[in-house]
Amino acid sequence: MRLIDIVQGDTAEIPAEAIGLRQFLAYARVSTDDQERAGLSIPAQIREMQEYAHAKGIAIVEMYQEAESAFSDESRRPNFWRMVERAKADQKISGILVHDHSRFFRDPYAGPQVKGELLAHGVRVYSVTEPEYDPRTIAGLAIEKMTEFKNASYSIDVAFHTIKGMKENLARRDAEIGYCFKNGGAAPWGYRSYKVQRGVDRRGASIMKTLWEKDETVVAGRPVWEWARHVLIELRLKQHASLDQIRDFLNEHDIPSPRKRYWSPSSWRELLENSALLQYAGYGVWNVHAKHGRHRPASQWQIVEKAHPPIISLEEAEAILEVNAHQRKLGTDRSKCRMASVRTQGSRYLLSGGLLICKRCGANLVGYRNQGRLYYVCGAKAYRKGLGCGASMQLRKEEIEDAVATEVGLLFESWTDTKRLMETINEELRAVRQQQTSGSVEIVRELAKIEEEIGNIRQAIKGGLDDMEWANTELGRLKAKREGLLARQEAFGMEPTVPQFDLTQVEECRRRFAEAFAQGTNEERRAFARVFVKKIEVDPESADIWMYLVSRPPALIQKRTSAGLTADVRIGLVAGAGFEPATSGL
User: Fold this and answer.
1) Same domain, residue pair 302 and 223
2) How many CB atoms neighbour CB 387 within 10 A?
3) Does residue 240 lie within any of the structural domains?
4) Are 125 and 118 in contact (CB under 8 A)?
5) Would 167 be classed as within a structural domain?
6) What is the torsional sign of CA 73, 77, 78, 84?
7) Alpha-carbon gap, residue 328 to 482, rounded angstroms
């Protein structure tokens, strides 16, 4: 290396640390086509960041790119989280470059948390288009909070107008065909969506609209929409076929599902919901689903009649709903016949209920017994009679649960603030004591009411009551009730004062978390795990298990190899996950 090379800027082949350049990572993101047209395309962002880095004497060590909304599910931004983890792990990295701070995060809650973690590792986020500030100063903190407010308010405003536009679009009818436009999303099985051009916008770009029509694709000798009607009317309505029977019928006739080759009962559970049946009856239904798979109440749905060609009539849809209700009642009656002990035990599988997911097909992993041992397998295998997403893989129940429990314990220990945990525990204890106190007040009221009733009976006796036998019986009952209440009141009086945990005791609780977690029921342990874990993805191709954490980057639980645990572990070092090839029964 020569000094003249540094003076002339010819440092392409010289390591950044050798010439004293600050080493940064860079992140470019777009979320809509409009941002591409507005000059915020990824190439445009990269060009401006490179110009900024050259002017400021910064070496961009690695460039990360993504086409995803910052307000979407954060697990859908894997490159972003890889960048954050690289910045926190590599001591040579001192900053992250973005085009503007909204490219990094718009969420007013999670964004500052991630920036704070980076700052604790000596890494700051810099915008190439906004004023530079130091968030560790009072003025810089004020600017940062105003920037966060601006970005969050912009997103809220965009969301408001987007929803408003989608409502208006749903109610508009195509002038040529007469049916309503759609807001996107997959059409129900039996329909297909297609686009039509309806004019141009002010920039001269084509205005494309989406409509639905019956799917005329011929499968097994008849159009798909006819198969949909056959299942709804002939099987479900007339024969009261169960979800399993519908699944078997379609799989036996080699009729593929919309997403995968084979059907499962869960697919038809969705297609028989109220909103889906309305769509089959020709109604446009929107705003049914909220974030994270939740359903909104029917009062919030947007419904338009004659929105597309119907496959069934509204009367037939109503009749199918009655069959659904009848089938649910049968299922409830069957469940009542089970042993009470079986019902109260709950699932023996800690990671059931949608926490463990197959990355290949998106199905939940479910409990499975094979040759006397307990495993987790892809639900596509368990519920489709051996059909499904591909080669099977079994996870040994004990080992994967132990690995996840260990990871949750490490997260609890590292994320929990001792002082805040102490305040939370003491607040819960005070709430319990307050509830007990309110019970004591209720006893006083009951005692006063009993004394009043006893006084009324005695007054009646003095007044010449004829039925003395009734009076004596009633007085005996009231006195016995009074004695029971007095005993309860005395027990409340003997209760000690509300205990208060100090920092030493709470720290001991943190250290003994693993023991307490192991002693809880599966329902309790599952609820606690969900405080930290959003989902766990199992990749049957690479045999990796990715744990997506709540407001945190995903953690990779890696299987044990002949050389020991691999180095690519995100948070903590976890024991082997116990992979085994499927042997039989699938």
Assistant:
1) yes
2) 16
3) yes
4) yes
5) no
6) negative
7) 47
Tell me: the pLDDT tens digits for 370-402? 887 888 888 877 666 656 677 767 888 888 888
What's the CA gap between 72 and 222, in Å, rounded? 39
Distance CA(373)–CA(565), nearest Å, equals 25
Crossing angle of helices 397-415 and 522-532, in 10° steps, is 50
Q: Are 572 and 445 contained in the same domain?
A: no
- CA distances to 20, 38, 111 from 134, rounded to whole Å, are 21, 29, 16
- How many DSSP H helices and E strands does the chain contain? 20, 20
Handedness of CA 7, 11, 14, 20 (dihedral sign): positive
Together in a domain, 129 and 35: yes
Which tops the pLDDT comparison, 505 or 34? 505
Q: Residue 211 in contact with residue 307, Cβ under 8 Å?
A: no
Are 379 and 264 within 8 A, CB to CB?
A: yes
What DSSP designation does 21 have?
A: P
**Residue 80's closest CA among 38, 122, 110, 53?**
110
Residue bearing tokens 């009730």: 481
Paired tokens of 428: 């819960």
If one counts the domains in the chain, the total is 4
Is this prediction's pTM over 0.70? no
DSSP 8-state assignment for residue 173: B
Instruction: Detail the DSSP E strand segments found in 104-259.
Output: 124-127, 191-200, 206-214, 218-219, 222-223
CB 77 within 8 A of CB 68: yes
Q: Are 27 and 98 in contact (CB under 8 A)?
A: yes
Eight-class DSSP state of 98: E
Same domain, 311 and 242: yes
145 in the same domain as 19: yes
Q: Is the pLDDT of residue 460 over 50?
A: yes
**pLDDT tier at 272 (50, 70, 90 boundaries)?**
very high
Q: Count of CB atoms within 10 A of residue 419's CB? A: 9
179 found inside a domain:
no
| Residue 238 identity (one-letter amino acid) | K
Residues 408, 430, single domain; the answer is no
Task: List phi, psi (to 5°) of 205.
Answer: -80, 150
* Distance between CA atoms of residues 34 and 28, nearest Å: 16
Per DSSP, the three-state class of 196 is: strand
Range of the domain at 399: 356-415+514-581
